[in-house]
Amino acid sequence: MLVIVAPGQGAQTPGFLSPWLELPGLADRLTAWSELAGLDLIAYGTIADADEIRDTAVAQPLLVAAGLAIAEVLGASPDIVAGHSVGEFTAATLAGVLTPAQALGLVRERGQAMAKAAAIAETGMSAVLGGVEEEVLAAIAANGLTPANVNGAGQIVVGGTLEQLAAFKAEPPARARVIPLSVAGAFHTAHMASAVDSLREAASGLTPADPAVTLLSNSDGAAVTSGADFLERLVTQVANPVRWDACMATMAERGVTTMIELVPGGTLTGLAKRALRGVTTVALKTPDDLGAARAALQSNEER
């Protein structure tokens, strides 16, 4: 059983699109989508520096457009799709809930709204690695922080004010490491409440379709069968935690045997290697990875 997954913000690196643009038609596709995203996607994916693509309003449309473009190149027919945070827009499009135009238009609004929300207060995020999960969650709560990404495999990302994060790092949970992340704000926390209102207004004119394949939600890992329900989850997820651990639990329950992570791959397959033992994983980082991905697809079909 094949799952295709799409990474979230933070996966982007300077120049990650450059090798992909050598593939026929990809530059034309991204040029057309640049108009929908309101950004020069090719420039941001090739020559922009780390600070430029760290901007939430840039990173989110860039990641969704890149994921959709490479999914077209791959041409696979997944049994399940899922995305982490903004990767849910990619997944929703692969499942047929949104068209590429709808997804890119809506994610443009999401990125801008979240950037504005992040500017209201000095907030950020830190990764917590290791420790006993119950103890880690208790320490997070005691510091007034939010477990913004519960990623499984011993990794939780917390969000809150910079002051709260500094205090948490100064006295971390037992046997845990706290690593500050280079992000623009406390995503998937109450600090993003204003972005939810903006995104809901932007989504109000859309008529989503029901998913054509199994589509997992970050809210609880559930397979969502209603397009309208999934669109509402996309809206509210901006200010609520990402439960990637629950998504992987559902993958295990459904018998996933192969995972392919869209560009810029690596984060989600890394988690799967620790949490989904025995599952074949392929991260698409450059066109050189397409051979391994197609071999994995062939092997999956033969099972």
Quick recap of the structure?
The protein has 303 residues and is an alpha/beta fold.
Detailed description of the structure:
This protein is an alpha/beta fold. It has two domains: 2-119 and 189-302, Malonyl-Coenzyme A Acyl Carrier Protein, domain 2; 123-180, Alpha-Beta Plaits (2-Layer Sandwich). Helices cover 47% and strands 15% of the residues. The protein is built from 13 helices and nine strands. The protein has helices at 26-37, 41-46, 50-54, 56-74, 87-94, 100-118, 133-142, 162-170, 193-203, 227-236, 244-254, 267-275, 290-302, and strands at residues 2-6, 80-83, 123-130, 146-152, 155-161, 176-180, 214-215, 258-261, 280-283. The strands form two sheets. Strands 7-2-1-8-9 form a five-stranded parallel sheet, with helices on both faces. Strand 4 (146-152) and strand 5 (155-161) form a beta hairpin.
What fraction strand? 15-25%
Please tell me the total number of domains: 2
The DSSP helix count reads 13
Low-confidence stretches: none
Q: Give the CATH H-level superfamily of the largest domain.
A: Malonyl-Coenzyme A Acyl Carrier Protein, domain 2
Pairing-aware structural class of the strands and helices?
Answer: alpha/beta
Tell me which CATH architecture of the largest domain applies here. Answer: 3-Layer(aba) Sandwich
Q: Strand order, main sheet: write it out.
A: 7-2-1-8-9
Main pleated sheet:
5 strands, parallel
Task: Detail the topology: elements first, then pairings.
Layout (H helix, E strand, L loop, with lengths): L1 E5 L19 H12 L3 H6 L3 H5 L1 H19 L5 E4 L3 H8 L5 H19 L4 E8 L2 H10 L3 E7 L2 E7 H9 L5 E5 L12 H11 L10 E2 L11 H10 L7 H11 L3 E4 L5 H9 L4 E4 L6 H13 L1
Parallel strand pairs: 1-2, 1-8, 2-7, 8-9
Antiparallel strand pairs: 3-5, 3-6, 4-5
